[in-house]
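Chapter summary example: a protein plus S-adenosylmethionine.
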Amino acid sequence: MSESTSIAPPELVGSPTAFPVAVGRLFGVSLGPGDPGLITRRAWALLERPNTVWTYPVRSLRKESYALDIALRAGLALPARHQPLLFPMTHDVEKLARHWLKAAETVQALLATGVDVLFLVEGDASTYASFCYLARVLRELDANALIDIVPGVTSFNAACAQLQMPLSEQDDTIAIVPAAYGIAAVEKMLDDFDTLVLMKVKPLLDDLINLLERRGLLPHSRFIEKAGSPVERIVYDVAELKGTTVNYLSLLLVKNPDRVRGEMQRGCRKKTSTEIEEETQQ
Ligand SMILES: C[S@@+](CC[C@H](N)C(=O)[O-])C[C@H]1O[C@@H](n2cnc3c(N)ncnc32)[C@H](O)[C@@H]1O
């Protein structure tokens, strides 16, 4: 297989006359949202590579890592060197900055020994993922840090597939929104978007259900929890969830079929005035 990432040698740094020092590369390895069948071939090749260190996010050191669980359920062997990195669930900016720095320093120390570090990501590494913070802080520590991202299937793409619900058709607009923006903001978006993907719905679920009820959108809403995992839960009648507690790994897909659309330009892109002028001169 032509896997450039699986055969890349460690980078050498330092002047050619000095003893070169091998440094490792950090990979954000997307694993998809839960079904090991959604791990890409590129991610798989990296995870099978010997002499790498696996790192993975945990919300507390007593908690299991959902990302690691996906890799283990895939039948991949946990390497001898592996390490959880703590990314707590908090809005305390200072606390977050402290933990991101600690995680980045841990990775930096590993990379300095010449090993490649794989950071396991649930879903896609560029989509609301701890990997974004890790990569950013590592770059702040070392502007020359070697970082690669293996893209993956997001939770909402997998959710649409499970629900057999198109994310978008033809001219549809889509908004992917953390529900924490609040009910007023979500309601405003209903007027502009044909599909709303509401992420991180847990704390606001009841209020969201009330909004969907009021707007007559319950029949066009679906809930999914731990999409793709063995404990996946799909709820078609979202109103059933009122007053219940759901898992953090859950989202709502909302379609607004009655959205009033603005005027649309059909066909090819609008011609510039120069192009129109050139045409009339021919
Ligand atoms: C920190 S974000 C991670 C997003 C992830 N990187 C992705 O690509 O989808 C966490 C939020 O994503 C959504 N999510 C992640 N995994 C999910 C899953 N397996 N099933 C349903 N929702 C999921 C939930 O809304 C959750 O609150």
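Key point: The longest helix spans residues 93-112.
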